[in-house]
Design a protein that fits this description.
By secondary structure, the chain is mainly alpha-helical. It has 13 helices and two strands. Strand 1 and strand 2 form a beta hairpin.
Amino acid sequence: MNGRDSDKNRQPESICRPVATIDPFEGIDLAELERSLLKPRTLMNNLLVALVTIMTLAALVPLFDVVWMLLWKGGSNLTLKVFTELPPSPLEEGGGFGNAIVGTLFMVVIATLISVPVGMLTAIFLAQAKTESGFANTVRFAAKTLTGFPSILAGVFAYGVLVLAMGGYSAVAGGVALSILMLPTVVLTSEEAVRMVPLKMKEAAIGMGATDTQLVWMVLLPTALPGILTGVMLALARAAGETAPLLFTALFSNYWLISEGHIDITHPTASLAVLIYNFAGMPFENQINLAWTAALVLVLMVLTTNLIGQFFSRRQIRE
């Protein structure tokens, strides 16, 4: 019995033997990993980082220079009156460009009402189309080509189609010209946003018996909405600053677009971009100062629109 008990109490040699520890840094010279400027790879890395930083700051110089110049020359004349008064005539003091702000916003709204529905439907078709679809590839190629389309040609097109047909310049023609420039941005950004919707969400909706229409309206569009809004904001920022298309379509006006509760969209309409173009070439100091102030307001409008677009873009990335 004692022999059996001693055998039971005896531990296996493999358990009693201490396990040898392995040093993960064995054979590695830690001194070789120390950061030193004398080493070629570290020196080259620091030089390239410094070069990229300098080039980035150099690229920002024109932007800050323009903003500073606008604040310096246009900020001094930025008062409440410039938003509520009409453009002054030559040799007249004071005045403002309230009608140009209203006209710009109104034509951008017209362009948005045209380009956003068409652009979103086109983007959904491109995102859901088969990769080998020849028609989809043609539409996508046309949209990419339109991104580099000269803005003045959009104005010439709207002039030939609308201005000549309507018998005069109008806010409608200006809105149509701007919608041509907005359309490719809306299409391409919306398509990319729809494509970024996770596949598992689509499969889950299809597995629950959702139709293609329900899949688009209840899954794709709500999920891709931040990305779509980002594209719309970028397109709005571009349209608000265009001048050439409006010279052929809306021209300019010294009067309010809305008069006595009536909106006149079939006559020439003022815009900030054209007002800057007209007043910048004037020999009168008051008009030149108003051009600088109008440029500052236009830049602030475009900057605000871009910031809103960046907000929606970051929101989509977080989601």
